Amino acid sequence: MKILVSDPVSAQGIEILQKEFQVDVKTKLSPEELIAIIPEYDALVVRSETKVTKAVIEAAVKLKAIGRAGVGVDNIDVEAATKKGIIVMNAPEGNTIAATEHTIAMMMALTRNIPQAYASMKRGEWQRGKFTGVEVRGKTLGVIGLGRIGTGVAKRAIAMEMKILAYDPFISAERAKALGIELGELDEVFANADFITLHLPLTSETKNLINKTAFDKMKNGVRLVNCARGGVINEADLAAAIEAGKVAGAAIDVFEKEPVDPENPLLKLDKVVVTPHLGASTAEAQVGVAVDVAHGIIAALKGEPVATA
Ligand code: NAD
Ligand code: MLT
Question: In this structure, are residues 179 and 154 in contact, taking their beta carbons and an 8 Å threshold?
Fold first, then answer.
């Protein structure tokens, strides 16, 4: 059987696959190129760059499994795959710590103006007054999506003496309480949080969840962190809310369109700290997700039970 790896995936995962099956690594394929070669393959391994559309799935002839070396499967048409009997699996735990730590790093970079101060010093300046920040201690962190990463962020923020107010319709109040977290409705989080961090999947329900209506309900001077998925925030509305002074700043790792359009209004604002989708980019996480997905693909191709995404 043949496996296509169409995004950069850690060598450790590829070596595991190669012990069992033939593996072709072909990255940066255009949609047309992927459609042309997919009939040859029994399994496909992707990160987020490859868009596994309905057209790709329809072109597949013997595809049995699609493995996502990461969490979000929003780049895969899961419904079309499932209808065709193709298993879609992800690697839900390998990058949890990486994304959790990146979120905390982004929140602190935002609150202490670290990227702006760095850029200023590299220009030869010495401006101490310009970059005064705020402390997080005693502030309320609104966590939207209290899954693996949201919980990890909440635990670390509690260690920094922040108060956590979380919204997640699928988490019980008992579980939240056991973690020292208060659960509330979405509007309560909007109304009370000094910082809001997003850790929910991008779905038809969550697309544009953070839009003008949501910003209007937030505290003046709220700061936003998004290391989940770009489409959850309406980027034009966020830029407008920052320009109007409603939002004091944002730290954004993920964008509606990636690679990001250089004309994206968020890139033009000094109060927006950005990274190019680096949440999972640690050595440990890349090995973790690649190894997990490799074992999942092998199990699926051997007809053994696997957990689907
Ligand atoms: P998870 O499945 O463990 O947690 C997601 C949580 O969101 C769940 O608890 C779920 O109940 C909750 N949720 C679903 N719909 C919701 C809604 N409408 N409102 C509020 N909560 C809702 O996933 P995770 O591993 O914690 O990942 C969270 C997000 O981070 C995903 O979007 C994932 O793709 C993204 N992610 C990004 C990076 C990165 O590189 N930036 C890395 C890993 C994960
Ligand atoms: C994920 O959902 O796992 C992340 O976006 C990380 C990645 O794609 O590398």
Answer: yes
Residue 208 corresponds to which tokens in the numbers above?
């544009």
Protein residue with its CA nearest to atom 11 in ligand 1: 170
What are the tens digits of pLDDT across the range 167-221?
999 999 999 999 999 999 999 999 999 999 999 999 999 999 999 999 999 999 9
Interface confidence, given as ipTM, is 0.99
Start-to-end Cα distance in the chain: 23
Would you state the pLDDT for residue 195? 99
Strand ranges (DSSP E) for the chain? 2-5, 22-25, 43-46, 65-68, 87-90, 140-144, 163-167, 182-183, 195-198, 222-226, 247-252, 272-274
Ligand 2 centre and the CA of 196: distance in Å? 20
DSSP string, 97-152: HHHHHHHHHHHHHHHTTHHHHHHHHHTT---SGGG-----TTPEEEEE--SHHHHH
- Give the pTM: 0.97
CA of 74 to the centre of ligand 1 (A): 11
CB 228 within 8 A of CB 202: yes
Dump pLDDT digits (tens) for 35-78.
999 999 999 999 999 999 999 999 999 999 999 999 999 999 99
